[in-house]
Amino acid sequence: MLPYMIRRLALAVPLLLAVSLVSFVIMQSVPGGPLAIYRNNPNVRAEDLARLEEKLGLNRPLPVQYGIWLRNFVTGDWGQSLASGRPVTEMIGERLLNTFYLMGTAFLLTLLLAIPIGVLSAMKQYSLFDYLATLFSFLGFSVPIFWLGLMAIIVFAVELGWFPAGGMRTIGLPFSLTDRLRYLVLPVSLMAFHSAGQYSRYVRSSMLEVIQQDYITTARAKGLAERIVVLRHALRNALIPLITVVALDLPALFSGTLLVETVFAWPGMGRLFWRSALRFDYPVLMGIIIVTALLVILFNLLADVLYALVDPRVRLVAKGAF
Amino acid sequence: MGRKDVLLTMLVAVLFVVSACAAPAQPGAAPEAAEAGEAGGGAMEAQPASAPLIVAMYQEPESLNPYLSVQTVTNVVATAVLEGLLSIGPDGEFIPVLATEVPSVANGGLSEDGLTVTYRLREGVLWADGKPFTSADVKFTWEAIMDDRNAVVSRAGYDQIESIETPDDYTVVVKFRELYAPALTLFEYILPAHGFDGDKDMTGAAFNRTPFGTGPFVVKEWTSGESIVLEANPNAWRPPKVDRLIFRITPSREASVLLLKSGEAEVVWDLIEASIPELQDNPDIALWSTPSSRVEYLGLNLAQRGDPADPDQPHPILGDIRVRQAISLAIDRNVLVDELLYGMSTVATSAIGMGWAADPTIAVAPTDPDQARALLEEAGWMDTDGDGIREKDGQRLSLEITTTSGNKLRELSEQVIQQQLAEVGIELVINNVPSSTLFGSWASGGVLQRGNFDIAMDTWGPDIDPDGFVSILFHSSAIPSEAGGGWNFFRLRDPEIDAAIEEARSTLDIETRKKAYAKLARLVNESYAYIPLYNRLLLHGFKGDVTGWTPNPWEELTWDVAQWEHRP
């Protein structure tokens, strides 16, 4: 398996290069540019614009700009934001943590809800619980999260006053777990509601498939307790397909979710990316895109490796298709 | 039975996790938020003596160094921290801040030729870190702005300064290379010379994120995407009435308003006219509102539209001044103000409607549909086929109006104007585009720059010194072209207008300048290329128990932040 992983990681390098080049070209071809916001300001004259262009290196030919970016990037210098002048690594770093903190909690709750619901639904197929779970999952999946988020804020924050309307903590207070949790409740429950439904459907169908296999019948015939049959024999195998789904969703733990961050004023990566895109802040955008691409590659690899680990039928070989 | 136990255990575990999130929060949260008017949420409990004042704003500053960013939000925060030599009061007059008086020829502050400005500085003012404020700081500010290592956005005016002399700690003599009419608007923020490790290189300096100054507050902590926390400046000569001021960064105006309603913020920066009905009747909320110098206007294209337009080819319809005047006569601006702005703003009289440069004798343009019809007929536009729209030589009197899409107030204004013009036989077709398309550069095919429109609706207005604004909008040298130019997208070419603009900037003498601007404002009105509609409102929201604020159309919301307090 090790040669396989090394090969996959080596292939990631040209892939990242291609991603950076394509992103760079697309970004630069969008009309506007980082100085566009100054264009109708009478105080920012043509000479000011020319000076800024020179200072920020925007007047160099595009291949040169890309070359400089790449050279610096490889040596660990991700550049400075064109808007704020701050190091890109610093800007991404502070958002990564916030995003992980929100998304990680939501993800955990999602799995804790989705797996039992999926298992129960499968074991009691076509029962009232199954129908309710189905309804719940389709509702969660189909109601737009930004609308639901606003409704939740109006009801639980503005009207009832139970939870804060947005943000990550009470500003100015020293760290307090209960304070942090209060701010997590609304966004996390909404995200869990949104994705738990989806995941529970995977668990349910895969569980239904597994439960009809001969070895389950065998296990039952041996006289094993039903919970051993379900938990040890059926669930373990039923979760294998879920691993792929989950692993492929994991990059979002770091790249964030623009809608939820926007509705709940969460200072995460999604908003940083959106803001940088509107501002044509090329170095920040490049940094976020590379980080995200790297995460996607890594978690894809992780999915394959985990798959091989839990499913003895799968063997990874270095010659395997990429 | 066995499997049920397991599943039940799992369910209980899930419920436990859910309740672990919710349970500890509710008892603490409910009573607090119920008294939301008290402000500050949990912070109240921790430090009852110092309830912070929380301002919600939907944009985040890029830097808090006002010379490295020209965003309004940068200035909103910087104004609470840094002070300038002069500021501008609600009535548009200069007020001395770090200077002791406004330089004038009478008090010896201005030389006769207008090339030398002498400021007397306030003595005994300390920086937040205890060091004295002196003339060296003013000189440093200029030198830092002019230092090539700094990505200063605008050097306008500062690059006209030849030298700054500091004969003593409290005298600054600024010598200009050539006359710079808006000289007194410079030095809006003075930076501490010792704030950048003794260097003039501001790039990446800690000061840009956590500045300190002579103002009422100091920036303590800036958490990106979330908040900027300020504390009272212990050495302030105008000490604030609250200990802490917090700017909460929200993703949208709507989110800010929700925070105001839920009691998590007490001030909301920058509301729009559309939110008036929602907030006006709320007894807990007071609106900070004042008409501003920014005017909503119609810009008429004098050149035949094209991509790009040729300024030498007159517009087949709008090239005739009688048609343009008829449009102005057909519009009843009071309907816009009364119906769309809830009567809170005023009808605009000219491009320079407020401040010392405004001429109060200019009247609101008249509304007279009959005269409009007469003018159109005189110009040869008749309704020959009886469809209500006039024609001439087989051409319909049909024009396109464009503005930024997604702006409710503008869309409604367009519909009102569309109806009013229809009554005199002019068809108006609404075709709005995204603001990036409307205001885009020449190279990116911007609609205004290229002249690819008939009538555009836009907002713009002068600073307290109108020179920059009128030069970029009305001077014939500002007609956009591939080579550059400005925002004279009307393609207005009037030697008299050019002369008035140049005369106004040729002297520091306020009376001469006033006369020149009055003449300019009238000439622009008479061109009917620029049709003023109404003054845009500056609008902010306050919780009812926050007092001490005064609207000022010329300065940022925080200009009087030292006076703000919670009503006892």
SSE topology sketch:
The complex is a heterodimer of chains A (322) and B (568).
Chain A: H1 2-29, H2 46-56, H3 62-74, H4 88-123, H5 128-142, H6 145-159, H7 177-211, H8 214-221, H9 226-238, H10 240-249, H11 252-255, H12 258-263, H13 269-278, H14 282-310
Helix pairs in contact in A: 1-14, 4-5, 4-7, 4-14, 5-7, 6-7, 7-9, 8-9, 10-14, 13-14
Chain B: H1 2-22, H2 25-34, H3 43-46, E1 53-57, H4 72-78, E2 86-88, E3 94-96, E4 116-120, H5 135-146, E5 161-168, E6 171-176, E7 217-223, E8 227-232, E9 244-249, H6 253-262, E10 267-268, H7 276-280, E11 285-300, H8 321-330, H9 333-340, H10 369-378, E12 391-392, E13 395-396, E14 398-402, H11 408-422, E15 427-430, H12 435-438, H13 447-450, E16 455-460, H14 467-473, H15 495-504, H16 510-527, E17 530-543, E18 546-547, E19 565-566
Parallel strand pairs in B: 1-9, 1-10, 14-15, 14-16
Antiparallel strand pairs in B: 2-3, 4-6, 5-6, 7-8, 8-9, 10-17, 11-16, 11-17, 12-13, 18-19
Helix pairs in contact in B: 8-10, 15-16
